[in-house]
Amino acid sequence: MIEVLSAPMDDAVFPLPQLQWLALEILPKAARGYADVAAELVFALLLGLLLRFVLFPLMVRASASNDWAIDDIITARLRDRALLWAVLAGVVAAVPDLPWKARSIAVADKIASAVLALSVTLTLMRIVSEIVGRNQSPAGGGTTLIKYIINGLLLLLGVGAILGLFGVSVFPALTALGVGGLAVALAFQDTLANVFAGVNLSASRQIRVGDFVNVDTKLEGFVTDIGWRTTTLRTLDDLLIYIPNKRLGEAIMTNFSRPDPTMWIEVPIRVGFDVDPEALEAILVDEVRRAREALPGLRETPPAVRMRVGEWALEVRVFVQIQNFVDRNPLTTAMLKRLLLRLRREGLVIPLPQRVIHVPSAGADASARSSGSPTSLPDRRRRLYARSLGQPSATRSNSHPPAARPAHRRRRRRCDPLHGGCGPDLQHGARRTNLLAIPSSQNGRTPLCT
Asked: What is the pLDDT of residues 51-77, one digit of tens each?
């Protein structure tokens, strides 16, 4: 027995004498070279089980005791991968001890290392995705664009590490990419503009996921995500609006969530001009004070009352500060109802739109005609309308009798058929006029111009 224990073991090195004895007694001679590898794999498996079911569960329970969500995600993902990584690490450590040729051992070592590097890269990418998804809230501010950028960098590093294990250098590829980057940038300039605009929006922290923004006073909603091309807004009607990052970066935005969600609401009302402004302001302020007890969304800040003289009423605007901008519409409606009911209880009537029009009387028109004033505009219109119908105008006949008309007005000029109109009156210098459509007389005379 002593001679057997002291015999050479085919260059096999065992960490424990017991394993060496077991290999000599049980394993066949062809498998004795793998005893050390098997021992290392068993040790790695036991270590992985210890990490998976003892150590990391304790870390998960410890991380759950605080309010930070990132450590919960990290410990949970490491717990799921602990057994696999321990076994892969054992394989990487045991491969050089295999009774193989040096070339085969090198290839196996590279493959085992590549699988371990790929598993670590994918796990880190999943951790980043879960952190960004958990932080897509007003407090976190994670966006899809940040997830894409970080995952892209991790994947690039992982692929570069794997290629480096097989002796493939990534620097020539990066050089070629730099040469062809100009053509890619020209082909995708709009896409790249949206990408860099999204990076700027995320890095500047002007808007975050969960903020309520107004874009160019036309669109408003909650920011649900900032992607590599568009930013998504969710309106109060649960509609999704996709805005390109480039246009959003150039637009005028109003962020109602920063620096705090409080805001002032405006409640407009109108009263008559006969109301005492001081008494009206006291009534409005007292009603706002009473409304704070019934409406929990109002703040304790004193309201502001502003007045101005309108066309037919005294326009009053009451500004009340609220705790959250989300409640602006229901609180505005509730405050308007309370103010209107209070004004009615106080005996103040809301006036209706009025407009006073002054119309001159018939006696004033008659006195104006008798005093020799010019003919009014309606009379001239009636006279022109009568002319178009071929009827005599009574107004002109009464104001200019035939006996009193000038001679040049009573003279008739013959029509000139050659020029298609009436010839000029050289004696009186009358202007050339068009031929009126007057039928020829029965005696065959040429039509006369009036």
From this structure: 999 998 898 888 888 878 788 888 889
